[in-house]
Amino acid sequence: MLDAPKPEEDLLKMQLYMDVKDRKINTIALSNKEDMITFTTSSNQLIKVPINLERPSEDNKYEYLITSFHSRTITGMDYCIKKNILATCSSDKTVRIWQYSNSHYTQEV
C-alpha cells in the first residue's frame, strides 16, 4: 500500500500580495512556458509576475508592464512566446501589441 502524499507535496502553492487599492483584476494569462503570469486591472494596467515553479518559496516580485494605453476596460489578452509579445484587446475597440520583455508598446491594430 502506498502512503498518501503529504498536503505540502501534492499541491504547489504560490502567494502574491499586491497593493491593488480600488482596482480589480479583470483577466489573467499564463505564458506558454509557464514562467510568467500577467494580469490586467480595472484601471487598464498590465502587471507581470515572473514565477519559478522550481522554487515557489522565492519572492515573486511583480512589475507594472505598462500604464493604461487603452481608454476603456481591457477585456482580453494573450501571449505569443515565439515573438515575445503580448496582445491586449479592449472595449475601446482596439487591439494593442506589447513587447513584454522590455515593456514597450509596439503597435495598435
From TrEMBL:
Q: List the keywords (alphabetical).
A: WD repeat
Q: Which PANTHER family match?
A: CILIA- AND FLAGELLA-ASSOCIATED PROTEIN 57 (PTHR32215)
Q: What is this protein called?
A: Uncharacterized protein
Q: Name one Pfam family in it.
A: WD40
Does the keyword field hold 4Fe-4S?
Answer: no
According to the record, where are the WD repeats? 67-108
Query: What InterPro entries does the record point to?
Result: CFA-57, WD40/YVTN_repeat-like_dom_sf, WD40_repeat_dom_sf, WD40_rpt
- Would the keyword Zinc turn up in this protein's UniProt record? no
Q: What is the lineage of its organism?
A: Eukaryota, Sar, Alveolata, Ciliophora, Intramacronucleata
